[in-house]
Amino acid sequence: GGRAGQRTAWRSESLCLRTPFDVGRKLPRALAFTLAHDDGVRIWLNGVQVVADDGYGRERLHVLLGDALAPLRPGSNVLAVACTNIGGAQHLDVELAAFPSLPDQLRGQ
């Protein structure tokens, strides 16, 4: 048996995900990743590493803006994620959100 909502059983020390996504013609001002992972995770955007988190947990937020968005291009992009389990529980869930504008407190960054 697996956990409720589990789509893929994970039985190895590492898990890799790769998927294309399209942002349309106008680039967003920010990308946000909400992660649930155990343990360390790495995220690449079009082959450039943009997130490295050696922790674990749920609802871990990583926001890319400014220069961190340099790998992003209009239209089709590729997101790759790798998670390595060092013991105990094993899970990985990635949510991606794109923001066409920034809240006032983040403008100019």
Could you explain how this protein is built, in words?
The chain is mostly beta strands. Helix content is 0%, strand content 51%. It is built from no helices and seven strands. It has strands spanning 14-22, 30-38, 41-45, 48-53, 57-65, 76-84, 91-99. Strand 3 and strand 4 (48-53) form a beta hairpin. The chain is globular and about 40 Å long.
Helix content bin: under 10%
Coarse shape: globular
Written as H for each helix and E for each strand, in order along the chain, the element string is EEEEEEE
Distance between the termini: 46 Å
Relative strand content: over 45%
Radius of gyration: 15 Å
Count of beta strands: 7
- Poorly predicted ranges: none
Tally of separate helices = 0
Mean pLDDT: 80
Strand order of the largest sheet: 1-6-3-4
Structural class: mainly beta
Main beta-sheet annotation: 4 strands, antiparallel
Oligomeric grouping of the chains: single chain
Q: Brief description of this entry?
A:
The protein has 109 residues and is mainly β. The protein has strands at 14-22, 30-38, 41-45, 48-53, 57-65, 76-84, 91-99.
Q: Topology, please?
A:
Layout: E1 14-22, E2 30-38, E3 41-45, E4 48-53, E5 57-65, E6 76-84, E7 91-99
Antiparallel strand pairs: 1-6, 2-5, 2-7, 3-4, 3-6
Which properties best describe this structure?
three-stranded antiparallel β-sheet; mainly beta; 109 residues; globular
